[in-house]
Amino acid sequence: MRVSKRATSAIALSAAAALVASGCSSSDGDGDAAASKDGSIVVHGVQPENPLVPSNTTETGGGKVIDWLWTGLVEYPNDGGAPRNALAESINTTDSKVFTIKIKAGTKFHDGTEVKAKNFVDAWNWAAYSPNGAQNGTFFADIAGFDQTYTSDPDGPDGPKKAPTPTADKLSGLKVIDEQTFEVTLGAPTAVFPTKLGYSAFMPLPDVFFTQKPEEFGRKPIGNGPVKFVSWEDNSLIKLTRFDDYNLRDKMKIKDVDVKLYQDDNAAYADLLANNLDFMEVVPTSALAGDKWKTDLGDRGRNTVTPSTAFIAFPIYDKRFQNPKLRRAVSLAVNRQEISDKIFFGTRKPADSWANPLTPGAKPGNCTACKFDPETAKTLLAEAGGFSGEMVFYYNADSAHKDWMDAVAQQIKTNLGINARAEGVPTFAVFRQNINAHKMTGPYRAAWQQDYPDVENWVNPLFITGGSSNDGLYSNPEVDALAKQASAAPSLEASHEAFAKAVEKVDQDVPSIPVYFYGQQSGHSEKIKKLELNNVGEIDITSVEL
User: Fold this and answer.
1) What start and end residues bound the annotated signal peptide (predicted)?
2) CA-based nearest residue to 523, from 43, 59, 60
3) What pLDDT is recorded for position 325?
4) How far is CA 219 from the centre of its chain?
5) Strand order of the sheet with strand 174-178?
């Protein structure tokens, strides 16, 4: 499970839209326009896990940069509105199974080549061909022919068998009609399919991508978005600059964006207070006590809600964590309200559901394992045969997770008598590499920030067998079958009801532990006169004025 990137609900965020999309004070004078045109900003970031290839990026370190470098078929408005066309001229269907997609003519990649229909088809085929190893490959499972292009390892990453070679290297459901038009045929009607198309997995790739190794391309990526790549110094800085040939709605008002890659949130916060950092998405927990961040930042502070949930994930590939009674015991021993009150000073809400309630189709209160019930937890632990040895809870130490992870470990130690402690991994990139290599030896911090506004995004990537972010290798054939039924439902209403049944099965198995729903406290420098946050609380760099 990972923190991802994208949109939220037009309906669910209606009450919070003023918080999410409100801008800072601004002036329309000529001086401000000039300052913006040639100006630059420095924003907080962390080292990406992988080279920057859209369909192989499943975390926010690289994900937010990809969001700026690329523009997709649809976009998710900052004001919480419904998805709307971006690069797509039109997306038409009569049956939610066959879609005709026409893209706008005359848009360019950063190397000057035109974005054409084939750039989408080629990119999707590359991602859906499992030998290429794209982490987002399963996002193309809706498309006809996926079962011929994508195969899974039959006995897991540590087993002797290898995944069989696919029988096809291209999806039968993709067809280029002309330079601006392509057709997508799904395996079954899928009402949510157009909503997904703003997620980074579905971005186009330039022709040059297919002449290089993916990792070479990803170190010097070529997108089609409002900024283009300049340079990348590991664990230090990613430099971006305005793409002057960009001709869609969201053009840049400023010129340069430096993404400073921090290993310590407190150091980043000190830079923010000194106006050496222009935007920090989440202030450290040390600044929350007594609303210190409000005093420090004044009108430079921002408070919002996002469709994001913090989890503790289990490495179910480790035999010690394969008993669902043990996992439920750990969950019931966590006092979420105490963590919210004492660690986050009420800025986070205790989680009580598997999908964030800001999401269309999400059912509130459906996590029975989220209750605090230490007595039942002790009984379940005994029924599971107890736990031998040390239970280490892991987190990435370059962001503000130490306090709440220490609290979780201490609660497990106190309420279950397990020898538990928390341990930080120095950087997010190394942390994610260990997770993806299935090398975690204890429960670990995870989170989910939805990619597109539908409950499907909280089930298929996380809980179906082989899901793109099912990092703990959880598998339940009943969940798989119910999720498949839900994905192919004829309407969103029917889909949401079917996904609710799948979530009931997930709740019985407790493959992970929802801990809290995010609130977000952000800050910006004095030089920024206007900005907007997108639907998941990230800075919209195209809105920035100086």
Assistant:
1) 1-27
2) 43
3) 98
4) 21
5) 88-93, 98-103, 181-185, 174-178
CA nearest neighbour of 123 among 48, 226, 4, 214: 214
Residue 80: predicted pLDDT: 67
Counting as low any pLDDT under 70, the low residues of the chain are 1-33, 80, 154-160
Q: What's the DSSP call for residue 202? A: G
Where are the domain boundaries for CATH 3.10.105.10 in the chain?
Answer: 305-521
The pLDDT of residue 12 is 25
What is the phi/psi pair of residue 428, to 5°? -60, -40
Work out whether strand 512-524 and strand 444-449 pair parallel, antiparallel, or are unpaired. unpaired
Report CA-CA distances (Å) from 385 to 11, 325, 413, 419, 493.
Answer: 45, 9, 17, 15, 42
State pLDDT tens for residues 376-416: 999 999 999 999 999 999 999 988 899 999 999 999 999 99
Please say whether the dihedral angle defined by the alpha carbons of residues 337, 338, 343 and 346, taken in this order, is positive or negative.
Answer: positive
CATH superfamily of 40-266+525-540: Periplasmic binding protein-like II (3.40.190.10)
Distance of CA 409 to the CA centre of its chain: 25
Residue 406: burial class (beta carbons within 10 Å; 0-12, 13-18, 19+): middle
In this predicted structure, what is the pLDDT of residue 359?
A: 87
In angstroms and rounded to an integer, the radius of gyration of the C-alpha atoms of the chain is 23
What DSSP element (H or E) covers 377? helix 374-383
Per-residue model confidence (pLDDT) at position 8:
29
Q: What angle do CA 511, 515, 516 make, to 5 degrees?
A: 140
Query: How high is the pLDDT of residue 36?
Result: 87
Say how far apart CA 198 and CA 78 lie, in whole Å: 13
CA angle 473, 46, 528 (to 5 degrees): 135
Name the nearest CA neighbour of 5 among 92, 64, 87.
64
- Alpha-carbon distance 290 to 191, whole Å? 46
What pLDDT does 159 receive? 64
Q: Where, residue-wise, is CATH 3.40.190.10 in the chain?
A: 40-266+525-540
Residue 394 contacts residue 422 (beta carbons within 8 Å): yes
Backbone angles phi, psi at 190, to 5 degrees: -140, 105
pLDDT at 7: 32
Exposed e or buried b per residue across 388-404, where buried means at least 16 C-beta atoms within 10 angstroms of its C-beta: eeebbbbbbbbbbbbbb
Identify the pLDDT of residue 397. Answer: 92
Q: Which CATH superfamily is domain 305-521 in?
A: Dipeptide-binding Protein; Domain 3 (3.10.105.10)
Indicate the pairing of strand 512-524 with strand 279-280: antiparallel
* Burial of 240 per CB tally in 10 Å (0-12, 13-18, 19+): buried
Q: Are 304 and 80 in contact (CB under 8 A)?
A: no
For tokens 């590991």, what's the residue?
234
